[in-house]
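[Automated response] Your request has been received and processed.

Submitted sequence:
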Amino acid sequence: MGLTSDKVLWAAVSAAVLLFAGTVWLWPRLAGRGVRAVCGRVGLLLATQLALFAAVGLAANQSFGFYASWDDLFGREKDRGVVVDHAAGSGAGGAPLRVVGRERLAGTPGARTAGGGTVEQVELVGRTSRIASPAYVYLPPEYHRPEYRTHRFPAAVVLTGYPGTARALVDKLHYPRTARDLAAAGRMEPTVLVMLRPTVAPPRDTECVDVPDGPQTETFFARDLPEAVGAHYRVAGGRGAWGVVGNSTGGYCALKLALHHPDVFGAGAGLSAYYKAPLDATTGDLFQGDKARENRADLWWCLRQRPAPDTSLLVTSSQKGESNYRDTLRFIERVKGTGRTRISSIILESGGHNFNTWRREIPATLEWMSRRLTSG
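Generated structure:
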């Protein structure tokens, strides 16, 4: 039986109830001070607690879709995602930047590129938005080589979900390591990655919108960040030089930034993304009654009412384990109908809303993005 099966959930609930009843029934018999009595009490209490925690965990997983299968839960789901391109009509489903820390990645054994590049911890300050945010910048090994001293590299913004931690993009999702290995294998161009969370005004979830009389988050990502990074690092500028990728909330932000700012972002990838900004206790009132702003944050509305931008989008989901699966299929069809914006997808058979699923999608996503970015 699968992890998300109702039978598994009810089996865990039944086990917890039976163990509780058994504990109550047997407790008088285990009231002695002997070793067997003490061990019996401990065993019953422990078994009841484990069954209860299992039932609660399974119920939470049913509600939030963290894991789609037992292999997914234990990290054994290793099949990589495959990008499918969807052609129209096809049937396929202070200082602006300050470095505050630096570390080197280990080299890849046997790779044709020596060294592993560097990850720099930086503080970004938006000139226009006045937002300050920490970030990590990955510089590929080629960045430091003499023969590349005049080369300007393509760049990609990488975003976490909400609330997220930027460090998880390095340590848990392995973006720098994956980019290094793909470039070493000749499967993507050496690319500068700027990794941070979309929560630039914590603890508020601004959904990457310019909030009236509040954080100008979209301006920070679309204008201030590329400007600050471009002034400090040798990254390419102009149309098609930058991409943006993210998971969950970061995925929604990535798609929106690519749709709203095709002059900046030539490609946007949303891993397990949703397509309309929510309004809840974490966001507060994002639009202050401004319907035009609210519509602009709704990707469905943008595709229906605004001219299709010249950009490339990638969306991901799973047939089993992701709540956005049907919306993602609808989004693909909606974008295909625009006739100008290009859409690709990664659809897994199984995978929940978690790091293991995104690690399976990231290599193909970075390859896809690299083919759509330009360097100088």
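Summary generated for your ticket: The longest helix spans residues 35-64. Confidence is low (pLDDT under 50) at residues 108-114.
If you did not submit this request, please reply to this message.
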